[in-house]
Specification:
Number of strands: 0
Structural class: mainly alpha
Order of helices and strands: HHHHHH
Strand content: under 5%
Distance between the termini: 35 Å
Mean pLDDT: 84
Number of helices: 6
Largest sheet: none
Helix content: over 70%
Shape: elongated
């Protein structure tokens, strides 16, 4: 793999933004810079998760859909959402569906708000 990876570049840029540039900016720009830094952190986590065989929740959704007999070219999450909206999932599969939805939610939280997951684990 080529180094530095995208997530590493974002992390370095975020640190420079927060440590070097933020102190130089007018106070009225603090919120904007912190919002940008947060977006950079989320993007870095998404890249890292993708690079590290991420997508466990998506893999589970795809497996669930295959067991459901679905054969769509749509991404697994979109197809799963369509099945749920149509109420097209047999009630005997609802516990499996809950497990898939929990896994997808945890994977998204791990990217967007990992502190929340750590807090809930304690």
């Amino acid at each position: 793999m080529n180094r530095p990876a995208g997530d590493e570049l974002l992390s370095v840029a975020r640190r420079a933004l927060l440590d070097e540039l933020l102190p130089l900016l007018p106070e009225g720009k603090t919120y904007d810079v912190l919002m940008i830094a947060n977006a950079m952190a989320i993007a870095a986590r998404e890249l890292a998760a993708t690079q590290a065989a991420g997508g466990q929740g998506v893999d589970q959704a795809a497996s669930f859909l295959r067991a459901q007999g679905a054969q769509s070219a749509e991404p697994a999450e979109a197809e799963l959402a369509a099945l749920i909206r149509r109420r097209d999932i047999d009630t005997s599969r609802h516990s499996s569906l809950r497990a898939v939805l929990l896994s997808l939610t945890q994977a998204k939280l791990a990217l967007s708000n990992p502190k929340y997951l750590r807090h809930e684990a304690n």
